[in-house]
Amino acid sequence: MKRFGQNGVALVLVMLIVALATTLAAFMTARQNLWQRQIESQLDRAQARRVGIAAVDWARAVLADDARAGNSDHEKEIWAMRLPAMPVENGEINGMIEDRQGLFNLNNLVRNGATSAPDVAQFRRLLEMLGLSGELATALSDWMDADSETAYPGGAEDLYYLAQARPYRAANRPLAEMGDLALVKGFDGRTVETLRAYITVLPDPGPINVNFAPPEVLAAVAQNLTLADARLLVQQRDGHPFKDVADFRQRLPHGGVIVSDGNISASSQFFLVTGRASIGGAQVSTNALLRRASGWPDVVWQTIQ
Fold it and tell me: What is the Cα–Cα distance from 140 to 156, expressed in whole angstroms?
């Protein structure tokens, strides 16, 4: 009986050791599989980032070729056509290039540190067409201009912003991004969403590309142009884009429409590139603003998420 008991204990110990070894092996295998998946995920994401960066370089090459092909930019050009998803190794990529100069550039409101009255008047017309207060134009120009004098009606400088629950000062410089509007008097979330389809923030003041401008922007930039006539111009350009400023002027309705050559153009310098790369289980979104002054476009800013 004693020998049997000893043998039984030994057997139990062996079984425990085998079970422990099996559990340890299973644990190590699971950890190794997890580590391998993490490594694969990191590799997929790194590859997706490289593909996203390559997509921006591809867009720069396309825009450089387009600049050599002609002087106008419009929706019928190859760069403006949205590309379907393209297969790449272990995944796919899709993206598009969008004109940004057909929208009203908020940084036009202040030039060389001083408020630009003609641009403020244009922005006020746009605001009122959209059912918003025209005083928002004064508030925004006050936010960006270099002085500390409050403009009326609707302006706001340090005295207003320092009186808020969380005090801060007016920026006294151009907008860096659309998100800056949240700090400006009157620009609540609903207002910004109403404006989003018609405005942009570009680093340099510049003209509106009439080949991409929505009817509301055209009617704001061209004084005395009614919204109905602006919509008719947009319908006409769908079939026949404007070749240049002179062509745009020839198609304007008679009756005192006033528009300065410096406020409009038929070409663009700024373009937004957006893309999404999917590699394995990783997805990466790329956004970049390009400036095409001459030759190869420059990257103004770029985000990869």
Answer: 8
Whole-model pTM over 0.70: yes
Report helix, strand or coil for 238: helix
Edge-first strand listing for the sheet containing 91-99: 83-88, 91-99, 270-279, 282-291, 298-304
Distance CA 108, CA 65 (A): 28
d(CA 211, CA 207): 12
Residues in Cβ contact with 22 at an 8 Å cutoff, skipping those fewer than 6 apart: none
Domains, in order of start, for the chain: 2-100+269-304 (3.30.1300.30), 105-198+206-262 (1.10.40.60)
pLDDT in tens, 61-104: 999 999 988 889 999 999 998 777 777 777 788 889 999 999 99
Cβ neighbour number for residue 259 with a 10 Å cutoff = 20
